[in-house]
């Protein structure tokens, strides 16, 4: 706590109850910032002698009294400028009394402490208070708005003299209106008063002052216009200047109110017309823009694609494919399934998909003979796409993520050997593409390219495996259909998949139906039964002789473009020696070390899993 004789006294607070805080907080000025949960208490402040606290109740009442005098000054100063007779009457003496009270307030201001926002202390030093008031613009305006110029003229000249000069000087009293603004700002923050009614009262006061000012101003113009008969009031009252002050003031206020309300009505009607025109123009603009917005979006997207292709110096063929895809995307936007179906319930989406694609999927060789429940689940998970002509749907050696069923159009299946493209087959409606890579979980062996505009439906590898895993009976049918399809492949396609020849040969040597059923179960289990691609070695039926692996005759770090890049699919023997012998037979060379794809050496065949890739070096 600061001593009594110090130049600054910090704000001291004490804790109060919530009811006391509510009653006392309204007396705190908006410029003071007490801590949360505390209120200002006059009894706890230690100010210098003859220093007034800015939030002292008596000083607040004094400020409120001055606000009433400010309202009178604002009304009288404009009235006295307009009507010369009013400046010579009783209002002149009332003005002197009002100026006297404001002169007292100027003196009191030299004794009112102020709140220093830089260090949050209440400054009560007389010199600092006086220096702050003198160096501010406030003192000059307070003095010039309080000087009684008619009284000074009486003292110097000996007579009361009022005129336009003194009337204009009286307008300096309008400076005092800032006190009214401060009062309303304090009332708006006072929780004891309704904010709505406070704002409404402020609006009414501003409106009344505007009506009073406008009426007096236009009467002042009419009184000084020559000839006066051509003015708004002179046409109705020819001798309006000889009438009394209150008669002229009443006419002015009436004219101001009528004119103001007419302008308000005109403004409201004008705003209504503007809104109506904006609504009409907006709808017309919307109709025009809606027809071309898709065109603008397509052109912007194509320009972005072409800039990307130019920046990265992509080849011309790739640019044409990108451009064709973007054009097809916008041309078939209304046919895309995803945008239409995404907001519909799953049951409705399934019904629509079955209605559109059930017959096509049912004709596909892979799903012939499967149950209707499985087919219904499969169709519901499929997604439709369009591809432009000469667009590569599947690239050779890419990771198998989806397989496709052709709904309409035509595609070519090709392969590349030493940089030369070789045609293999043509696919049409209800044919499949990409299923070999998905089922064997190997890089896609062929490139699939559209010949014309084609619609396909696709399903992801992961979803397909989950469905087959839950339906083991349908899985066996799918494996049987797939094996029949492999047997009917053309010679050119079998040459691209050398391990298929050995796989089909192994299938033919199985002597009994029991072995065939076992192998079908193993094929299905290894391909679909485990989503992670690993074998369930805890099953005793999966011995070393029933686990299939793919063997290669080169080091895993070595890249090869020869025909053995796909490796050989074999059943894992019971010993490492048998594995070396089998590898020598399949690959044409004998190795001494077995490596995994990551370079780790295999020492125990029991650690191997279904579809592992082994490198014999």
From TrEMBL:
InterPro entries: cNMP-bd_dom (IPR000595), cNMP-bd_dom_sf (IPR018490), Ion_trans_dom (IPR005821), KAT/AKT (IPR045319), KHA_dom (IPR021789), RmlC-like_jellyroll (IPR014710)
Annotated KHA domain residues: 548-617
Chief site of localization: membrane
Localisation per UniProt entry: Membrane
UniProt membrane topology term: Multi-pass membrane protein
UniProt GO cellular component terms: monoatomic ion channel complex
Biased composition (Basic and acidic residues): 515-524
Keyword Transmembrane: yes
Record domain Cyclic nucleotide-binding: where: 366-485
Gene Ontology MF terms in the entry: voltage-gated potassium channel activity
Transmembrane residue ranges: 61-83, 90-115, 200-221, 268-289
Role summary: Potassium channel.
The family this protein is said to belong to: Belongs to the potassium channel family. Plant (TC 1.A.1.4) subfamily.
Domain comment, as recorded: The KHA domain (rich in hydrophobic and acidic residues) present in the C-terminal part is likely to be important for tetramerization. The segment S4 is probably the voltage-sensor and is characterized by a series of positively charged amino acids. The pore-forming region H5 is enclosed by the transmembrane segments S5 and S6 in the Shaker-type (1P/6TM) and contains the GYGD signature motif which seems to be involved in potassium selectivity.
Subunit structure: The potassium channel is composed of a homo- or heterotetrameric complex of pore-forming subunits.
Record protein name field: Potassium channel
Lineage: Eukaryota, Viridiplantae, Streptophyta, Embryophyta, Tracheophyta
């Amino acid at each position: 706590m600061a001593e009594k004789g110090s130049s600054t006294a910090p704000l001291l607070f004490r804790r109060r109850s919530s009811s006391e805080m509510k009653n006392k907080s309204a007396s705190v000025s908006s410029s003071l910032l007490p801590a949360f949960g505390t209120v200002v208490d006059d009894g706890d402040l230690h100010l210098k002698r003859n220093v007034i606290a800015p939030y002292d109740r008596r000083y607040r009442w004094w400020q409120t009294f001055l606000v009433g005098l400010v309202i009178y000054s604002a009304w009288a100063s404009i009235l006295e400028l307009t009507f010369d007779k009013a400046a010579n009457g009783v209002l002149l003496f009332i003005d002197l009394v009002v100026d006297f009270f404001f002169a007292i307030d100027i003196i009191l201001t030299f004794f009112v402490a102020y709140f220093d926002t830089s260090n949050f202390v209440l400054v009560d030093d007389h010199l600092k208070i006086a220096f702050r008031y003198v160096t501010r613009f406030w003192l000059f305006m307070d003095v010039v708005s309080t000087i009684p110029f008619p009284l000074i003229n009486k003292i110097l000249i000996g007579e009361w003299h009022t005129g336009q000069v003194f009337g204009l000087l009286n307008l300096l009293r309008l400076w005092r209106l800032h006190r009214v603004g401060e009062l309303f700002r304090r009332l708006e923050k006072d929780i004891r008063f309704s904010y709505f009614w406070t704002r409404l009262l402020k609006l009414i006061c501003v409106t009344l002052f505007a009506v009073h000012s406008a009426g007096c101003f236009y009467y002042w113009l009419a009184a000084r216009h020559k000839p006066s008969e051509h003015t708004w009031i002179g046409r109705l009252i020819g001798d309006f200047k000889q009438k009394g002050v209150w008669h002229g003031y009443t006419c002015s206020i009436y004219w101001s109110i009528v004119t103001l309300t007419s302008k308000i009505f005109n403004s409201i009607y004008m705003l209504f017309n503007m809104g109506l025109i904006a609504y009409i123009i907006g709808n017309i603009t919307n109709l025009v823009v809606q027809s071309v917005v898709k065109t603008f979006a397509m052109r912007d997207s194509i320009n972005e694609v072409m800039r990307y292709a130019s920046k990265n110096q992509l080849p011309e063929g790739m640019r044409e494919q990108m451009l064709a895809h973007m054009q097809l995307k916008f041309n078939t936007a209304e046919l895309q399934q995803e945008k239409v179906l995404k907001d519909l319930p799953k049951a409705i989406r399934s019904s629509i998909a079955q209605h559109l694609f059930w017959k096509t999927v049912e004709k596909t060789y892979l799903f012939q003979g499967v149950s209707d429940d499985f087919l219904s689940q499969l169709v519901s998970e499929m997604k439709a796409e369009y591809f432009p002509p000469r667009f590569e749907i599947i690239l050779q050696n890419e990771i198998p993520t989806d397989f496709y069923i052709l709904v309409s159009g035509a595609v070519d299946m090709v392969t590349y050997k030493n940089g030369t493209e070789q045609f293999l087959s043509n696919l049409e409606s209800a044919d499949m593409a990409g299923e070999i890579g998905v089922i064997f979980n190997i890089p896609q062996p062929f490139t699939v390219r559209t010949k014309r505009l084609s619609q396909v439906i696709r399903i992801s590898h992961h979803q397909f495996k989950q469905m087959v895993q839950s339906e083991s009976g349908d899985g066996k049918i799918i494996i049987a259909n797939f094996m029949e399809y492999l047997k009917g492949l053309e010679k050119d396609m079998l040459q691209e998949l050398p391990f298929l020849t050995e796989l089909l040969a192994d299938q033919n040597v199985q002597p009994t139906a029991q072995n065939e059923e076992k192998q079908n179960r193993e094929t299905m289990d290894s391909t679909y039964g485990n989503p992670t691609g690993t074998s369930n070695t805890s099953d005793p039926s999966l011995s070393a002789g029933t686990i299939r692996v793919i063997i290669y005759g080169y080091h895993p770090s070595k890249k090869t473009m020869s025909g053995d890049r796909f490796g050989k699919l074999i059943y894992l023997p019971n010993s490492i020696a048998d594995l070396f012998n089998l590898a020598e037979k399949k690959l044409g060379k004998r190795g001494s070390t077995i490596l995994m794809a990551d370079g780790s050496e295999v020492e125990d065949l029991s650690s191997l899993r279904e579809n592992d890739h082994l490198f014999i070096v």
